[in-house]
Design brief:
homodimer; 4-stranded antiparallel sheet; about 35% helix; globular
Amino acid sequence: MNMIVQKFGGTSLADVERIKAVAAKVATTRREGHSVVVVLSAMAGETDRLLGLAKTFSRQPSGRELDALLSTGEQVTTALLSMALSEEGITAVSYTGSQVRILTDSAHNKARILEIDERKIRNDLDAGRVAVVAGFQGTDRNGNITTLGRGGSDTTAVAMAVTLGAEECQIYTDVEGVYTADPRVVPDARRLEQITYEEMLELASLGAKVLQIRAVEFASKYLVRVRVLSSFEEGPGTLITTEEDIMEQALISGVTLNRDEAKVTVVGVPDRPGVASTILEAVAGANIEIDMIVQNTGADDTTDFTFTVHRNDHTATLEILNGLTDALGARGVEGDNKIVKISIVGVGMRSHAGIASRMFSALASEGINIRMISTSEIKISVVVDEKYSELGVRALHQEFDLGENED
Amino acid sequence: MNMIVQKFGGTSLADVERIKAVAAKVATTRREGHSVVVVLSAMAGETDRLLGLAKTFSRQPSGRELDALLSTGEQVTTALLSMALSEEGITAVSYTGSQVRILTDSAHNKARILEIDERKIRNDLDAGRVAVVAGFQGTDRNGNITTLGRGGSDTTAVAMAVTLGAEECQIYTDVEGVYTADPRVVPDARRLEQITYEEMLELASLGAKVLQIRAVEFASKYLVRVRVLSSFEEGPGTLITTEEDIMEQALISGVTLNRDEAKVTVVGVPDRPGVASTILEAVAGANIEIDMIVQNTGADDTTDFTFTVHRNDHTATLEILNGLTDALGARGVEGDNKIVKISIVGVGMRSHAGIASRMFSALASEGINIRMISTSEIKISVVVDEKYSELGVRALHQEFDLGENED
């Protein structure tokens, strides 16, 4: 009797018919002899509806009260799914985060799970019942309702799988798995059978929105096998697991495109210690997150300091730095929000030299000028002009033989 | 510093503007120096919406899951009101039934309150915070969410007032208090300043829908002063208290009209022991509630056995009894669903003879024929033809000098 955790997101629970379809899927898994724990999000749109309601009362509602409000979303879906399962002949029991006792810290709206009490759930599974658990929420030591932040249901599912020692944590979404590139950009993009945690982390943070980063980190830490699959189509999805479990590791797993960034350059900064930190502290002090950072020492004693921020923060960042140019002794500040970031990700590049040069020459052969470069152990990112977005992604997808036709 | 419990029902919380108005009212009470505990229902229509949703999954949803679902309604209003209070400059904390720990038995959908843990609420009040508690819900010993049944929020409010020793439990509704008669029927009906628990119980069970019967029983048992008042109009409302607290007790407090009943007569039943119980058991066995019962011994050895049921149950009741006539040796079964019940209520009738004869002659002088009579210590009810509804109520209202103009 294997134990499986199945998590369904908001689009899988958007209306009565879809909830019934989820019930049918869970019932099938149960009938196949598995023990099943289900973790649910709120119905699509419900969290936004509740947030909107809160905003009509307060521009900045209390975190505690917001969590109390938002947590009703999953309480509704878990109760409804339990009813639907019962109609399928499956005995099911719904739980809020507090009822399970998913203990979190007290950081409202972005709480972290500290501990899950498995006793009630274990009891249900032993008795053949399906446990239907509200994702995204928990309770702190004082009994206050907390939420884990957007996408937190993935984290609940993985944490539940860790606690129970589940064989697999299945994350049902509206896509059929993790792809080598966005199929809307690259028509012959291919679903990956398997991928490592590390690669998934890079892909998740680069904009492949199938799975929350925190959930992948959690899974990676405790080596939980996570499978991303579609709640609308049959199929094996993509298994996220350790490198050791993957027999034939591809060189590159995927190409990602991030359109949300903008570039900022502080031009002609004196090349002396402390300049970078002065710039970054000023930006961070305004709660603006910085992604890529590049600094080149120039011929004279000055340097250009370049970094990227979210496009929404671009104007604010330029304003902050314009106010700093005198103090920095910089010549000026330049901005560009017509750029994109293209990355290739793959654990295979650890052991293979020359990946970067293949990437750059593939882009060059399409006439694409690289504006910034940043590398990590399993990822190379470049910033290019926005107009080259699709061309760049397709060139790299082909260069590394990622397509369906190239198998 | 007096403590007050204020309960607001669904119509007082129907939309954003009304919730803001409730917040303003609570804030005023708090600023006047009172400690305030607020008990809330769900937004008007929300419970029905959730019930409808449940029915799309199951004709008879699990009681446990239904309670988990329905309890979200008050969780939403308590969080929203706390936000609204915060905008009024009042620190407020919302609580679900589980969070307070309103311990109930495990009878889902109609649970009874066993115990309320007052510690968190007391802490809040001591610190000057307003506690906003979800009505209608609690938790059983195993942590399952329970609900108290329709109108249960009144019961929560009174129970909270008992636990905390509140000076007054204020029930805000969409009427300005308890009236001597329905103002739509009797234009000069008068709001009662005060009324006893006993009278309120009779009025509540007779169709004056301002307050749930269980809440009045609870208040009566623990002698909590309850005040019914409007959330839309300023005014003192009606105070429900002990007979001793009411200085000038009127003879009759009010006249009520119940249009929901229908009459059933089993004609020519042999006058021997066990007949009544055979009839009543058959009806009760179909979960049909019986209200008035009248039996007259006739001239021969047979009797007519008459009782009233809810109009919705009339047809079913007739069918059951038609199937029993042979076994009973009865001549037949007759039904009439064009009847109403008119009652007068007042603790004053205990010490004054002749109330019944005044009532009957007032009806007779209007040519109204009385079809059934039933009396209790502080109430006299008659069944008359439906067409006499308004005429009968007005005649009695005038007979007992209940109107505004007769003070």
